[in-house]
Amino acid sequence: MVRAxxxxxxxxxxxxxxxxxxxxxLLVVRRGANLGARxxxxxxxxxxxxxxxxxxxxxxxxxxxxxxxxxxxxxxxxVRDLGSLNGTFVDGARIxxxxxxxxxxxxxxxxFKFTFxxxxxxxxxxx
Length: 127
Description:
This protein is mainly beta. It has a single domain (6-122), classed as Tumour Suppressor Smad4 (Sandwich). Helices cover 6% and strands 39% of the residues. It has one helix spanning 11-18; strands at 25-31, 38-41, 45-49, 56-57, 68-73, 76-81, 88-90, 93-94, 99-101, 106-109, 112-118. It has a six-stranded antiparallel β-sheet, with helices on one face. The protein has a five-stranded mixed β-sheet with strand order 4-3-5-6-9, with no helix packed on it. Strand 5 and strand 6 form a beta hairpin.
């Protein structure tokens, strides 16, 4: 699978990714009702789902109330499915356990597809 690059982003999206501090990441909606929306991942845990009290609210019947959890450990991020009906996918593969997220990874929650972007400060070779 070809990973997304920041050159695939609009100028506003590129600026948002470039402004991320170390230890933060950004999810950009690529498919779904919130097309183009951005969600900042800067907490140790962020839950995505249809419940009004989740961190990443996705209003669609293909999304469970508490569908997936994005986890941060230092500068590393992962995602895990929370027993959703339709599953959580990383780069097209359904995940059964926690999956590590790499820069440019595609994450699917219900019909929503996101691209994951890590802080530029946390990428190998960046200083």
